[in-house]
Amino acid sequence: MSTSEKSTKLVGTATRRKEDPDILLGQARYTQDISLPGMLHAAIFRSPIAHARIRAIRMERALALTGVVAGFTGQELRKLSFLKPMAPFPFQNRDPFQKGNPTIKFFDHYCLAADKVRFVGEPVAVVVATDRYIAEDALELIEADFDELQPLIDSDAALAPGAPLIYEEWGDNLMLRFRVSGGDVDGAFRRADLIIEEEIRSGRFTGTPIETRAVVASFEPSPKILTIWDTTQIAHPIGTLVENTIALPELRVRVLAPRVGGGFGQKWSFYPEEVLIPLLSILTRRPIKWVETRREHMVGTIHAREQTHKIRAAVLKDGTILGIKDQIIANIGAAYPTGGLASIVTTGMFVTGAYKIQNYEGEVLGAVTNKTPYGAHRGFGKSEACFVIERLVDIIAEKLSLDPPEVRLKNFIRPEDFPYVSVTGPRYDSGEYGRALTKAMELAEYRKWREEQARLRRDGRYLGIGTCLVVEPSSSTRMGSYNAGYYSVRMRMDPNGKVSVFSSGSDEGQGHATSISQLVADELNLPFDDIVVVEGDSWACPYGSGSYSSRFSVVGTAATTLAARQLKGKILNVASVLLQKPAGLLALDAGKIFVAEHSQQSVSLKDVARAAYFSIFRLPEGMEPGLEILYHYRDPNIEFHPDERGRVAMFSSFPYDAEVAVVEVLPETGSLKILQFVSVHDCGNMLNPLIVRGQHLGALAHGFGGALYEELPYDENGQPLAMSFKDYFVPTAMEMPTLTLEHMVTPNPFTPGGFKGAGETGTVGPPAVLANAVEDALRPLGVKVRQVPLSPFYIWSLIEAARQGK
Amino acid sequence: MSVRRRIAVTINGQLYEHEVESRLLLVDFLRDSVGLMGTHYGCDTTSCGACSVIVDGRSVKSCTLFAVQADGREVLTVEGLARNGKLHPIQEAFWEHHGLQCGFCTSGMLISAYFLLTRYSDPSDAEIRQGIAGNLCRCTGYLPIVEAVKSAAQKRRKS
Amino acid sequence: MYPRAFEYFAPNDLAEATALLARYGEGAKALAGGQSLIPLMKLRLASPACIVDIGRLPHLGYLQEDAGNLNIGALASHASVLQSPIVRRRWPLVADAVSVIGDPQVRNWGTVGGALAEADPAGDWGVVALALKARVHCSSVRGERWLTADSFFIDAYTTQLKDDELITEVVFPAPPQASAGAYLKLERRAGDFAVVSVAVQLAIDKNFICTESSVALGAAGLTPIAATIAAAWLRGKELRTDVIQEAAGLLAREIEPLADIRGSENYKRAAAQALFKQAVEIALRRSRGETVEAGHVR
Q1: Which of A534, A546, A635, B151 is least surrounded, with the fewest CB atoms within 10 Å of its CB?
Q2: Can you tell me the mean pLDDT for C234-245?
Q3: What is the rounded CA–CA span in Å between residue A735 and residue A731?
Q4: ipTM over 0.90
């Protein structure tokens, strides 16, 4: 791209990323790379027991070790008058929707447990040493006595009457209850030809970004500024949350997210370490660094997706789904402020999926157990909902002897129905579900595989075909939470004519700097390289809620585009003064502003900028100095207030994909061969097809991981059994199947760019489509697949049980 | 005969002499003693490969080697791939093919790709996948990385 | 994440190394490639007070054929074995097994001797050594001796090696004429510990009768297991499907897999049988001169 000519548009092109050279050269700085003079290293002593009263923690031997500078227990920290319990997240109070629905119980967890431990991995004590090796030596010298209590692992057991209490104050183990309903579900069930009842489970999963969490904190006492470098997706909210938790008067907190190595929701949370490490800096007056080990990560960073759905569907003989009732029980672990509550509420909203089902009743119960706290993960509750509805559709098809795609096509929301208000309130923006599925089936050669299946069945082989349609609502807003429904951008053209964009989102690999630069380059006809993007700095960037829910594509791009247009207006206004011509007659291109009909009459962008900053005497009264815009973009397709039935439009944009999978099951080992996998993906207009493809492929890989490989089992004592990548089977390159990807485009009608979220859809489909394919393959044996992951052992067990007639 | 030892390691062509604890892992020597932060920590069970470097011409996970084992040896880290600020063809290929998103696994991937291409001039897709089987990525889904390595191999063969 | 402190020695030759091991006894461990030992030390499951780095000892990294025997120096890396044209051409079972050890980085530094000494119940080299009836040469200040694979492994992570002894060489005796083998490893995903692994080595005469057979399994008990009864069943017979099926049934009763997150005992028994049958098929095809891929099974 030459710097003098700028006429080709960048939006919509596969522009390679400006972030990459630094990363490729090994120069990118992640939180674990931060080093400050005098810095000390923290190591955290975590509960080895799932449920116990803490009798005593003795630190003497640890503190006596050479190189150990300090150490604290939870009891000791309780004595600090300015330390409050961790402020609530994501909901800011017990009745966020102001309707008594959901009802939420909170618990005042501090950053270190003091009386009781409630999950293996809960932070109990901390040591600070001159290096990380010594800190780990010190951990071994901490002596802890616990009085063990009966652990609760299973959510049904936790909710059973008489169950031991994890939070005695509550009187039960129910943290959240949410009900949402629409239409007349009882009437639907009366009209039904068939009622189907199923229990379907979604397994516990964690996204494991390759970068674990890390916090570096440095406290300056005068004035009181606490600077925190943090691997977070939500710099501003963390600043507010920390200020509410470390309530030192006049304390100001600045949160910086350096380059972040993957988030996926795992870094959208409020963690005890985000209080503890800054607190240590205040107490020791030294910078403190903590880098999470992977072993810590497996228990100390949120898990997701563990839900049981007891679902009933009212169905007509022709496959029409009249109504659904779903009771959703989420196993949410301990009640830390981790974001899981919003995720499970979301599940309740999207059980009807891509289908025109206008009679629905959902009840969401969040049961605390002695497991790692539940948080947000890619898909955010909708992955569980999609798994359930897509399995249900196949089950309905089987009961009615229909081909599953037929049932899908019959019940889909149709193109003419958009914008479609779903039974729980969200307004689905646009889509062509039927066309996407049909296209996917064509690409997969569905009919041919059905014939192949019949042939192989005669040879006693098990080939199966699965289909699914994922709708993955993106860009969430939630009353009473930090997802406040807007995206802010500050955009400045400096005196040299270069643009800086201070964005309130955050980047964990999505390529925001490139995307924003493409948008601004097009709006202002500037070279791509003349635009600098800053994110993840709670002081430099306008207050915002960070990145989650694939919202950048929806609201981030809109804020950027509209800010750029406003900035352009300002530039033209100043230029019009300098050129003595109305702004409406002026054009901006290639570093100059010129009169459209008479291009010799021009002024350079640099001169305009310098005039705006340094020669305000040339500007009329009332015209602001400088070229800087602060723009707030409100999400256009959401509603804040739920109604009395819990209905609310809490997501604004609806990307989707249709998937077809063909598998062969090898019954002797339960192994799966994926013979074909097609995804037809629609995320509206594509700002950068290279980035969209990358996001979708990465999401699919997460999907395969959850579908086939990754599980987080606990033993009966509440001990987690997957504590490392040796036991938690994140797929390697060798596990990725060959994929056929296609795109469709139904633009987002509400935003300037027409983009929808692109980063999560892929993760949702594989569990559903592969479960459908496996059940289809094993239909001759009457096997029922009701959970993921589809480990070989699970599939083999299903086959064995079927063969033994169970 | 002590817990500390003096070592001399050549890293990216430059000799570094330091006194280190015998238990110091090579990854920490590179990052903390020498200040080369491009090599990353991603796990603690020799699984993720984010710490991969080349020692005496062979790729290794630097979290599973003591610095003392690198005494007298030559180490290549990601910082040593580019020459005079010009990207190595493998780095160029990753850039072209979007073989990175968050970038955290990228140093290790580049090293594994580099090592693979010292052994195979025309690796098949299967051989590339095997070649990076010791490197975990959560962002890319691996396929763009395979495409990048294939492209780098092609360019190498042409030149 | 980080090991406990230890003293470190880098001896220049084998004599110095064995002297150090003798002096420090139980408190010392030999470090070859470190790809088994260092992970254990980082988890603090092993914390030797003293490490004797034998990784640079000269003359122990070789691989050569001698009168049909395959002699591998203890410090030969897995990668060097995998790259050897000798191994690829004449020892396909070994090639299969080495190709599924860990990943490229681990294969570059991990050594044959180190893997055998570690005696991981799921370790691949142990299974190969059993199946091919290897002999292990060991050295200490007290002298040298040969151990046979079938008596080498005593328990999980425990071999006949004394604390002060080092493996210096592994010898695989020349297989009989017209024999072929295969190694298959069932994994949850690449680089993982085996769910179960099977090595089969067969000799087939011109009448299609199996004259020699050897079967060993990994991750099927506390040590690698020689399925001698199943192997014996195959001998003297034409290996038709029903014969192989019978042998698989016998094999299931010779192993003692442990239930874990990869599966129950019964699952592992079933998987072992499936892998055994596949391995026999591949060995048969190879004995007829076919080129067949083996190694990973998923």
Answers
A1: A534
A2: 96
A3: 6
A4: yes
